[in-house]
TrEMBL record:
SUPFAM superfamilies: PH domain-like. The keyword Coiled coil applies. Phosphatidylinositol 3,4,5-trisphosphate-dependent guanine nucleotide exchange factor (GEF) which, independently of RAS, transduces signals from tyrosine kinase receptors to RAC. It also mediates signaling of membrane ruffling. Regulates the actin cytoskeleton as an effector or adapter protein in response to agonist stimulated phosphatidylinositol (3,4)-bisphosphate production and cell protrusion. Keywords: Cell membrane, Cell projection, Coiled coil, Cytoplasm, DNA-binding, Membrane, Nucleus, Phosphoprotein. It comes from Sinocyclocheilus anshuiensis. SMART domains: PH. Residues 298-357 are annotated as: Disordered. GO terms for cellular component: cytoplasm; lamellipodium; nucleus; plasma membrane. The SWAP complex consists of NPM1, NCL, PARP1 and SWAP70. This is Switch-associated protein 70. Residues 200-296 form the PH domain. It is found in: Cell membrane; Cell projection, Lamellipodium; Cytoplasm; Nucleus.
Length: 574
């Protein structure tokens, strides 16, 4: 754990290369790490070493022995991370035009510290780089380009087989593998991998939580860690509202739907309980299973740290086997060279002796040469076998890596299948309850239908009786209607007779009116001999020789017209 911070501290040391700055750096480190600063230990460490304050080899032992070894187990390293980044980043990335923000570059730096090898200087090997890139592409929802990474791995292996932190930031920030991806999507992917690996966030998401005082439901952002579960106002993590400690005294249970809320579960702790509503049934089961898995494995490290440790052990084992095979190859090569030297010495010695002895020794040398050749052939065969074993081991390592990937995929698929099976069982139970309830409702409906059928039969019987009564009433009404029609016919004939009498009376009235007009005309000619009294109107009356209102306006106009005509005729006659 502590070695992951040495990378930043080495860069800080390179900046603080004189004694006053070393003193200030050590004091600030102790303040941030919340440990007492022992000034005498610092002076004692460098009193006999003139190169101590300005050399990494001199400062790092003091850092490990007097500072890092005294850090408490529950210390939050975020502040130390930020300080190391603030002091070391400007020196390495200030002049580069990265496609990612400074915050994302800091997160990539923290991921590098997490995945790098536990030795100085910190470096990330090609296997861990592939693990990180696969995680990043999975978080972004993009497909993994195996061929492109293989080309990059071959190009990298030609130079070196590892990267430092700034090379990794440049690789991600310059878009070597992420060209064409939205910067916001890349930032979200980096943040998700950072929270999963560095912050040990096992699961996260929005859910509804019931309050303890006002009992209202509020949406919160939940994060599940190894030993606790925290919740915030939103996913920006600015305002934390609470923390749930998950230990062996905690338990999580599913709750039935109530108060209009669905997908409920409860976390019961010693002091209080927390009622939470998930968005759907699958999310609810994932949270329940994740919490159960955590509080049943108290004291163990996170799955990501265990996986990282297994990968490191595998690489170390492969490296040890490779070194052993190389050592055996060197031993065989040295033995071969020594035998060649012995053979050359024996050949020189044979040439200086007599012919007989030379022939005898030559024969012996030929035999030895044949034996040496056989040994060389055997050694070559052994060497070829060892090379084949090396290739087989490499293939086994590759297959083992693929099997690990397949096992992880199978584990995820199995977990998903178990969740689906559990969900199917719950749905089946709910369906069986629903069927039982439907059968009960069907039986009650059947009884109601039978009662309705009996009522309908009674109603039909009653309706038949009513129909008969209605038929009798209809017959009576028809007879009454026929009598009324007869009376109507009599009234019609009477009306026709009355109309004829009315016409006769009308004619008599017309004749009487004509006679009255004739008499009026005669009266008008004699001017005032006789005035027939007729009903007048209520208009203002005029005074004449015959008295007030003796004539109407119409009659006066008519008399004036006749008088004027008579006057005109008399004037014409003269």
């Amino acid at each position: 754990m502590l070695a992951t911070f040495a990378h930043g501290l080495i860069d800080i040391h390179n900046v603080c290369c004189i004694w006053p700055k070393i003193y200030v750096l050590s004091h600030n480190l102790c303040t941030i790490l919340r440990i007492p600063h022992n000034t005498s230990a610092l002076e004692e460490h460098f009193k006999d070493d003139d190169e101590g304050p300005v050399s990494t080899q001199g400062y790092m032992p003091y850092l490990n022995m007097c500072i890092l070894n005294k850090i408490q187990a529950n210390f939050d390293f975020n502040e130390l991370n930020k300080m190391c980044w603030t002091l070391s980043a400007p020196k390495h990335i200030s002049g580069k035009h990265l496609l990612i923000s400074g915050v994302d570059a800091f997160k990539v730096w923290c991921i590098f510290n997490y995945l790098s090898e536990d030795k100085y200087p910190l470096q990330i090997v090609i296997e861990e780089l592939e693990y990180f890139l696969r995680k990043l592409f999975a978080a972004m929802g993009c497909s993994w380009n195996e061929g492109r990474f293989e080309d990059y791995k071959m190009h990298l292996s030609a130079k070196k087989k590892h990267l430092n932190a700034w090379e990794l930031i440049e690789l991600i920030g310059m878009g070597h593998f992420t060209k064409g991806i939205n910067p916001q999507t890349l930032s979200m992917g980096i943040n998700e991998v950072y929270r999963e690996l560095v912050m040990d966030v096992i699961k996260q998401g929005y859910m509804m939580k019931k309050g303890h005082k006002r009992k209202n439901w509020t949406e919160r952002w939940f994060e599940l860690h190894l030993n606790y579960m925290s919740y915030y106002v939103s996913e920006d993590l600015i305002e934390q509202k609470g923390c749930i400690s998950l230990d062996r005294n905690c338990c999580v249970e599913s709750l039935p739907d109530k108060d209009g809320k669905k997908n409920l579960f409860i976390i019961k702790c010693v002091e209080k309980s927390f009622e939470i509503s998930a968005s759907d049934k699958k999310t609810k089961q994932e949270w329940i299973q994740g919490i159960k898995h955590l509080y049943t494995k108290q004291g163990l490290s996170s799955p990501h740290r265990e996986s990282r440790q297994k990968r490191r052990e595998l690489r170390n084992r492969i490296k040890a086997e490779k070194e052993t095979m190389e050592s055996r190859m060197r031993q065989l090569q040295l033995a071969n060279e020594s035998k060649q030297a012995q053979l050359e010495a024996m050949n020189k010695e044979a040439s200086s002796r007599g012919d007989l002895e030379e022939q005898r020794r030559l024969q012996t040398q030929i035999e030895l040469l044949d034996q040496y050749r056989r040994d060389l052939a055997q050694e070559k065969m052994a060497r070829m076998q060892m090379e084949e074993q090396v290739v087989e081991k490499a293939n086994e390592v590759e297959q083992y890596w693929q099997r690990m990937q397949e096992l992880e995929d199978m584990y995820r698929q199995l977990k998903k299948a178990l969740d689906d099976e559990r969900q199917a069982k719950e749905d089946e139970e709910a369906l069986s309850k629903l069927q039982a309830r439907l059968l009960q409702q069907e039986a009650s409906k059947r009884l109601e239908l039978e009662q309705i059928h009996l009522q309908q039969q009674e109603i039909l019987t009653q309706s038949q009786k009513e129909k008969q009564e209605l038929e009798r009433e209809r017959a009576e009404k028809e007879r009454a209607l026929q009598a009324a029609q007869e009376q109507l016919e009599i009234l019609r004939r009477q009306r026709e007779g009355a109309q004829e009498e009315y016409k006769v009376v009308t004619k008599k009235l017309e004749r009487a009116a004509n006679k009255t007009k004739t008499w009026k005309h005669k009266v008008f000619k004699h001017e005032g001999l006789l005035q027939i009294i007729q009903p007048g109107n209520k208009s203002p009356t005029r005074m004449t020789n015959w008295g007030q209102a003796a004539f109407t306006e119409t009659e006066l106009d008519e008399l004036e017209r006749i008088w004027q005509e008579n006057k005109n005729r008399s004037h014409d006659a003269q």
